[in-house]
Amino acid sequence: MDLGIWDKKAIVCAGSKGLGRGCAEALAEAGVEIVLNARSADVLEATAREIAGKYGVKVTPVAADITTEDGRKAVLAAGEGADILVNNAGGPPPGLWSDWNRDDFIKALDANMLAPIAMMQAVLPTMIDRGWGRIVNITSQSVKAPIAQLGLSNSARSGLTGFVAGTSRQVAGYGVTINNMLPGIHATDRAISLDSGVMKAEGISMEEAQARRAKTIPAGRYGTSTEFGSMCAFLCSQHAGFIVGQNISLDGGAANISV
Ligand code: NAP
């Protein structure tokens, strides 16, 4: 399918690996110019080179922490005039409800709520003036089906979801769509780190931890960054202009909810 966005420019935050990279690759495959962000310059630059080489599009790496104001300024400067924004950042650590103090919550809110909101506020005026824009936020299945040990993530991502629910409806009339993608378990470094925690806590092997988790997913497997990226590119396409303010689960059926 021709996504009709070959002349667009996208900012992809936290995109040197995992789900963000999957989104960047799928957009690049559709011909989109990419401004690619992550903190570690070496991995980021290697990813940017690979994507540019594979799809023949311009990929500009910006090594910066997206949860900081300076980091966002650097990304936005390189991504000036962006038509597409993919918001993403690392997820907060798991724990028990009593583990976290105010500073832990502020850190989680900065990364998974306030940073994406600041990025949206920065790019929306240009998108609105142009009459076209696409914003996708990577959140988590925990928004619809909270995960007990991910209290920080549940809290911060619910806040972002609330902001998007209202804002997406305020900007839809200008041709700008905002939607959230809710990953369930995908085979990325984040999943390896969650499975390592289970491995240590239960005294089992990595294979056993992964097999146990896969059994909780009706699809019987982890998702891939490639299929995640394909959905992202579709949401950013010309065909998705009527999809507004949605929370789209990509979880292999793991969250047993009907809407
Ligand atoms: P990942 O494989 O660990 O990749 C994270 C990417 O984000 C890396 O490129 C990393 O590069 C970059 N990054 C992290 N913190 C950043 C920051 N502050 N500023 C800029 N870049 C940053 O993670 P993932 O699995 O793709 O997960 C992406 C998001 O989806 C996370 O918020 C995660 O919690 C959420 N999620 C994932 C799953 C899953 O199963 N994978 C499920 C539910 C939710 P640097 O470290 O070099 O910055």
Q: If strands are numbered along the chain, what order do they take across the biggest sheet?
A: 3-2-1-4-5-6-7
* Secondary structure tally, helices: 8
**Number of separate strands:** 7
Alpha-carbon distance between the two ends: 27 Å
Largest sheet: 7 strands, parallel
Beta-sheet strand percentage? 5-15%
Which ranges are low-confidence, i.e. pLDDT below 50, for 5 or more consecutive residues? none
Give the helix proportion (percent range): 40-55%
Shape: globular
Bound heterogens, unique = NADP nicotinamide-adenine-dinucleotide phosphate
Radius of gyration: 18 Å
Protein structure class: alpha/beta
Question: How confident overall, as mean pLDDT?
Answer: 97
Structural summary, described in words:
This protein has 259 residues and is an alpha/beta fold. The chain has eight helices and seven strands; from the N terminus they run βαβαβαβαβαβαααβ. Helix 1 packs parallel to helix 2 (41-55), helix 4 packs parallel to helix 5 and helix 6 crosses helix 7. It binds NADP nicotinamide-adenine-dinucleotide phosphate. Residues 14-20, 37-40, 43, 65-67, 88-91, 138, 140-141, 183, 185-186, 188-191 line the site of NADP nicotinamide-adenine-dinucleotide phosphate.
Nutshell version of this structure?
With 259 residues, the protein is α/β, with parallel strands linked by helices. 47% of the residues lie in helices and 14% in strands.
Key phrases:
259 residues, alpha/beta, 7-stranded parallel β-sheet, 47% helix, binds NADP nicotinamide-adenine-dinucleotide phosphate, SDR_fam, SDR
